[in-house]
């Protein structure tokens, strides 16, 4: 039996695979696979950490993006140390760059976001964060992505474990060729 990808392929680039839905036009510069590095910290942590991250945005012709991100910590020499944050979800882009997303994390958290794509800037604020009984208490998150050609910066703020909303992650990624 042929797989679904053969009939209804996901596209990671304009001009390849299905035509993008017109509503996702403001999000088209995100399509592709992005790889880069970042630093993170939090009020409860004794020291900051470094990580690398790969993010993929694709679409199947409907007005949403498939979003997949995985990160791994790196040591002082920049070598991969251990797997870290992963998340995947769906970014629904509707008229005028209005964005709403649902993102799931393996640490027992599901987040809905509302936001806006304005030119090269994307702002997203959590609307609801739902946590499983054993998950850390996380109550809010805000994200800002800035696109500059093939470069993407991605900053995440988190409000959790009694701490005020504060920056947890900041990464700079480049779009991989192809
Ligand atoms: C690139 C993705 C991410 C990376 C690399 C990352 C990395 C880390 C690291 C290294 C720690 C310290 C504990 C440990 O060693 O595991 C940590 C703690 C934490 N992270 Fe993340 N994280 C990511 C995404 C997220 C996201 C999306 C959230 C929330 C939605 C989150 C919330 C937290 C919280 C609440 C803590 C614990 C603070 C505490 O209990 O002291 N992280 N993260």
From TrEMBL:
Q: Which domain of life is it from?
A: Bacteria
The cofactor note from the UniProt entry for this protein is: Binds 1 heme b group per subunit, that coordinates a highly solvent-exposed Fe(III) atom.
InterPro entries tied to this protein? Calycin, Nb(III)_bact/plant, Nitrobindin, THAP4-like_heme-bd
- Which residue intervals define the domain THAP4-like heme-binding in the entry? 25-175
User: Which intervals of this chain are the motif GXWXGXG?
Assistant: 32-38
Question: Could you tell me the keywords of this UniProt record?
Answer: Heme, Iron, Isomerase, Metal-binding
Indicate which residues the UniProt annotation says bind heme b. Answer: 44, 136, 168
Q: Which cofactor does it need?
A: heme b
User: Coiled-coil intervals in this record?
Assistant: none
Write out the pathway annotation from the protein's UniProt entry.
Nitrogen metabolism
- Pfam families per the record? THAP4_heme-bd
Query: What top-level class of enzyme does the UniProt entry assign?
Result: isomerase
Stated EC number for the protein is 5.99.-.-
Annotated catalysed reactions: peroxynitrite = nitrate
Q: What free text does the record give on domains? A: Forms a 10-stranded antiparallel beta-barrel structure able to accommodate a hydrophobic ligand in its interior. In fact, this fold hosts the heme group, which is located in a wide surface cleft.
Q: What does this protein do?
A: Heme-binding protein able to scavenge peroxynitrite and to protect free L-tyrosine against peroxynitrite-mediated nitration, by acting as a peroxynitrite isomerase that converts peroxynitrite to nitrate. Therefore, this protein likely plays a role in peroxynitrite sensing and in the detoxification of reactive nitrogen and oxygen species (RNS and ROS, respectively). Is able to bind nitric oxide (NO) in vitro, but may act as a sensor of peroxynitrite levels in vivo.
Regarding protein family, the annotation reads: Belongs to the nitrobindin family.
Q: What is this protein called?
A: Peroxynitrite isomerase
Report the source organism: Streptomyces thermospinosisporus
